[in-house]
Structure formats: structure tokens, C-alpha cells
């Protein structure tokens, strides 16, 4: 019996030496020791859901649009605000994308002043069937890839004598999304505007909730008062820059 126990102990020692050689000289670790040292990996922390927001992927061109009065409109068209990447043979338009949300939504576009913070602007947005009361309301959804290119949208001027009345009507149907009072209407610069995009998400059929804050574009200037410099006439006379 003693010889048998001695033989078993020798076999165990030989097995441990063989395992140590296989581990590159490191002492063998028993299954019991491995189970004591093992700690399960913690699952990665869950990231918060993305916040729905509007991203302007193409700004409006600052100087290519002419603000026109109602009497200046040519037929049913009043021009269109072009995008900043527009060229002579390739028109583009202001474009927005809704990120962090995939579903039906509504975009309300309005004119705001270039003040900081912005105030309501008396000029109206016209040109599309969705334009009402100086605003433009567009529907966006998964079928459009949650993007919207706003073409056929124009700015219509208002006579100075009608500015206060227009602002009063605008406040009744659509208050300033930045909650800024109009103040002195005569201090609003009528030669430039900024487009404001406000996002509404559909929570139930026909019911929407607003997502803050709204998004403003770069300034759009009336081309009549801010034209690009062009050479209108050239003289054949020459003179040195030093004079004489």
C-alpha cells in the first residue's frame, strides 16, 4: 500500500513538472486557484439615447436672393433662396437633416432678425404651398431620409408702414421661439434676415412636441442692397499708380 501511495505522489509531481515546462517555466496553477482569481467582465455602460436635433447641411447663399414686395412678384413666382454651393448651371438649396430621431416630424421655418438674441422679423416666407401667415411648415419622415432641401422658398418684403402690424399678427399666430420680445420695431434691420428652423416630433397621430433649441442659418442679405462688386465700365485711358 505504501509503495502504491508513493507511486501516485511521484506521478502527480511528474505531471506538475510537465505542465510547468509547457507553461514556459511558470508554476502550474490548479483549477481551484484559477476559479478564485477569475472575475467576470462587467458589461459596457449603456450610452444615453441620442438627442433629436436639426443640422443644417447646406446654408443659404448670403447674397443671391432679392427680397421683393408683393407688387414686384412676377406671376406666381418670387424667386428662390439658393444654397451656398449653388452655381450658375447647378442650383442648390438650403438643406437640413434631422439627427437622433427616425420618424414623422414637422419643421417650422420663419424669418428672424440678425440681433442677438434674435427677434421676430416682419418679412414673410412665400413660394411654397406650405407657406401660411409668413411661415413655412414642412413634413419630414423616413421616406425622405430625414432630410429636407427647401426649394422655391422666397422672402417677401413688407412696407415700413405695415411693419408693426405684421409683427403683431405674427406674434398672435407664432410667437418667437427664442422667447424674445419684439421691442422697438424700427430698430430691426430690414435688409437682412436669418432663417429659423424649429423641430416638432410626432408623439401621436396629429400631435407634436417641440424640440429646443431652434436652429438659425447664416445671415441672408437683400441682393438689392448688398450686391457683388462688378466692373460696369472700363476706361481706355491709362495712368501710373504714382500719379502724374
Automatic annotation (TrEMBL):
Query: What cellular component terms from Gene Ontology apply here?
Result: cytoplasm; nucleus
In terms of Pfam families, this protein maps to: RHD_DNA_bind
Q: What is the lineage of its organism?
A: Eukaryota, Metazoa, Ecdysozoa, Arthropoda, Hexapoda
Q: Which residues form the signal peptide?
A: none
Gene Ontology MF term list? DNA-binding transcription factor activity, RNA polymerase II-specific; RNA polymerase II cis-regulatory region sequence-specific DNA binding
GO BP field: canonical NF-kappaB signal transduction; cellular response to stress; innate immune response; non-canonical NF-kappaB signal transduction; positive regulation of transcription by RNA polymerase II; response to cytokine
Protein name stated in the entry: Embryonic polarity protein dorsal
Indicate the segments annotated as coiled coil, or none if absent.
none
